[in-house]
Amino acid sequence: MHPPLSDAAAPEALSQLQPQPRSPGDLFVSFTWLALQGFGGVLAIVQREMVEKKKWLTPEQFLEDWAVAQVMPGPNVINLGLMIGDRYFGLRGALAAVAGMLTIPLVVILALAVLYAHYAGNPQVAAALRGMGAVSGGLIAATGIKLIPQLRKHPLGFPVCLAFMALVFAAIAVFKVPLGWVLLVVGGVACVWTWKRIAP
């Protein structure tokens, strides 16, 4: 039986036990695969690949990193790729992850743009795109529901987290408050409140 880890040694030992990318090339291939699966949005795909399959992130780490990625300027998944790549291989890793997210999908998007310009007036094409939008919304909602259990470990407590979720949903979906103001006000209150809870 292994002796218990000291407080100082525990984080380092856990990071060694957690799977991680083998090289920047592994990051490039993994994020390329993510991008090629992410029709209409990659949140659901990223959570499944990074947390459930590759286990590069724990559910708690994914929730924390995704929260940071959302409040930073730019596309959320690009921000997340930058953070994951930098964590393991510094600047090389960050560039490899972003290149994986953009290179092949850029070629595909350009080809699809040419096709769409040619067939945009076709009613069947418009109907198919609306159907994809509905599926994409379902994928994002399903991923959000899967992340809810991790909120039970939040310093503010599960009921308070659910209240913040309901407040954000109402502000954006019902009252049409711009996302920037919601992040600034509601996100700011949540950050300050959490900081006061965990501050020594």
Automatic annotation (TrEMBL):
Record region (Disordered): 1-21
InterPro entries (alphabetical): CHR_Transporter, Chromate_transpt
Protein family according to the UniProt entry: Belongs to the chromate ion transporter (CHR) (TC 2.A.51) family.
**Residue ranges crossing the lipid bilayer per the database entry:** 27-46, 93-119, 125-144, 156-175, 181-199
The root-end lineage is: Bacteria, Pseudomonadati, Pseudomonadota, Betaproteobacteria, Burkholderiales
What UniProt keywords apply to this chain's record, in alphabetical order? Answer: Cell membrane, Membrane, Transmembrane, Transmembrane helix
Q: Which species is this UniProt entry from? A: Variovorax paradoxus
Q: Does the keyword ATP-binding apply?
A: no
Q: Does the keyword Transmembrane apply?
A: yes
Q: Subcellular location, in the record's words?
A: Cell membrane
Superkingdom of source? Bacteria
Q: Name one GO cellular component term.
A: plasma membrane
Protein name, UniProt field: Chromate transporter
Give an example GO molecular function. Answer: chromate transmembrane transporter activity
User: Entry's Pfam families?
Assistant: Chromate_transp (PF02417)
Could you tell me the membrane topology recorded for this protein? Multi-pass membrane protein
